[in-house]
Design brief:
By secondary structure, this protein is mainly α. It has 22 helices and no strands.
Length: 510
């Protein structure tokens, strides 16, 4: 009898444990779903907030520089102009028109994010930031639609979820300059006139066929690109899109025996009066936006910054900050990261001759935020930015000893653009350390002005393309010499002696 009683008690205890375990798993699943739903609402709110801020800035900008009354005409000029990298929409349409374009493109993305069934994720926000970033220099409310909608054909054909794959549609807009080129200039050649809308049947057909091709090719090449750089380039589409753009551009021009054409320029008196530099307006606008992000994140995180220190220790390698730390802290990260990058731009423009706060500069500041919810934070980015400065000093030194001047500066537009996308290599810093990050920045900076020529500037993710090539060069070297990667970022400080000295290991016994 006693033995049977003990057996029954043990069976009852095991059953109770199973029930408690199932209840615990169900509670965890419910908590995860609730967290996912909260993250989705915040992500959608971020997209709406940024889009509305662009629209409000369009109104403020038109008053600031006296463009009131010509904003919509400027937007029209933006939409009917060819736009390879880096076409400055401040010059083509004006400051207010460029912000109106960014606001319209952002609101379109937000509508898809909220109307399609399902949750928005960190990669959805990344796609949104890339769309609005390039709406200042190459993407507009007209040329985005063929690229954006084309993958839906593939998704419908394969019966895949639209909302889950919405980022793919956003990433496909990287090829938007091809659409404008086919529609307005490619088949017209010398007959093209700036500001005059003229379409040809062959141009429209080319744009349609190109879009359909993109719809089936882009979803296929994105997964493979990740295997090339092993997750160390957050701008995953950049490498794949750059190679595809390289083929398309060379086929359409070199193979066909046609001379490639450059970006469109316009003599804009108002823009000239500001010396192509809306620094005051840009600094005030972005500072207000980023401070609001920090305050909103602080409030949504229970009126605290608890957990942000843990986020700053994350390596950023294959990391979804929104799942690990929550979107409120990601909002704080967006604000802090954005302010630091804004400070960097102001400093290099102040102390170096070159570019200013142009349309592309506004755009790359937004592009720099792309993966602040998926791997980027201030601690794993600064070594890459420092690598850019090291290239400049090294180049200056060699130019001096050879008796010639350096032809560029770190405030040159192409280098400003390049450094924003080079930050996508931040997982290298997190996993391999500061010196590896500086090497990545150095390599990326040395190539950033050359890669756009490979695709004629018709792929907007040129910085991601350069970062991808950098990863292909650097990773095999790092994997060969550094056998163990880091799980958590260590405290970072620069030791110049350690950087140049050979570290001695334990001596072998005789």
């Amino acid at each position: 009898m006693k033995a049977n009683t003990k057996t029954n008690r043990k069976a009852q205890t095991k059953a109770e444990r199973r029930v408690r375990a199932e209840i615990s798993r169900e509670a965890q699943a419910r908590a995860a779903l609730a967290q996912q739903s909260k993250n989705s609402r915040i992500i959608n709110g971020i997209a709406l907030g940024f889009s509305l801020s662009f629209l409000l800035a369009s109104f403020a900008a038109s008053l600031y520089n006296g463009e009131w009354g010509s904003v919509f005409h400027g937007w029209y000029l933006i939409m009917i102009s060819p736009c390879p990298l880096v076409t400055d929409y401040f010059s083509i349409g004006g400051l207010g028109s460029a912000f109106l374009n960014a606001g319209a493109c952002g609101m379109a993305c937000w509508l898809f994010m909220t109307r399609l069934k399902g949750e928005s994720h960190a990669n959805t926000l990344a796609g949104y930031f890339l769309v609005v970033a390039h709406a200042f220099y190459g993407l507009n409310f007209l040329n985005m639609w063929p690229c954006f909608l084309a993958p839906f054909i593939y998704l419908k054909h394969r019966k895949l979820n639209y909302k889950s794959n919405l980022p793919v549609c956003m990433f496909a807009t990287s090829f938007s300059p091809f659409i404008s080129e086919f529609l307005f200039r490619y088949t017209q050649r010398q007959a093209y006139q700036f500001g005059e809308l003229s379409l040809t049947l062959s141009g429209v057909l080319l744009a349609i066929l190109f879009s359909i091709m993109l719809g089936y090719v882009v979803p296929a090449i994105l997964p493979g690109a990740h295997a090339w750089h092993k997750g160390y380039n957050l701008y995953n589409g950049g490498l794949a899109f750059g190679i595809l753009g390289f083929f398309i551009y060379n086929f359409m021009y070199k193979t066909m025996g046609l001379h490639s054409v450059g970006r469109v320029t316009r003599n804009n008196p108002i823009y000239n009066n500001f010396q192509h530099n809306y620094q005051l307006f840009g600094t005030v606008f972005f500072l207000l936006v980023f401070l609001f992000c920090i305050l909103a994140g602080f409030y949504l995180n229970g009126k605290s910054f608890h957990g942000f220190r843990a986020l700053l220790k994350d390596t950023g390698y294959r990391s979804d900050f929104s799942e690990k730390y929550g979107m409120p802290l990601c909002l704080v990260n967006i604000g802090c990261y954005g302010i630091l990058f804004l400070l960097y731009l102001n400093v290099i423009i102040l102390f170096n001759s070159g570019s200013g706060f142009t349309g592309p500069t506004f755009g790359v500041l937004l592009a720099a935020l792309t993966f602040t919810s998926m791997g980027q934070h201030p601690k794993n980015v600064w070594p890459i930015v420092l690598g850019y400065q090291i290239l400049y000093f090294v180049t200056s030194f060699f130019c001096q000893i050879n008796g010639r001047g350096i032809t560029w500066s770190i405030s040159t537009q192409s280098y400003i653009n390049g450094v924003a996308f080079a930050t996508g290599l931040c997982p290298i810093v997190g996993r391999y350390g500061v010196r590896a990050g500086m090497a990545a920045g150095f390599l990326c900076a040395s190539m950033c002005t050359a890669t756009s020529a490979l695709h004629g500037g018709f792929v907007l993710y040129n910085g991601g393309f350069t970062a991808g090539i950098t990863a292909l060069i650097l990773l095999p070297i790092l994997e060969h010499y550094v056998k163990e990667t880091r799980k958590v970022m260590k405290p970072q400080r620069i030791n110049l002696r350690a950087m140049i000295a050979i570290e001695e290991g334990p001596k072998e016994e005789a």
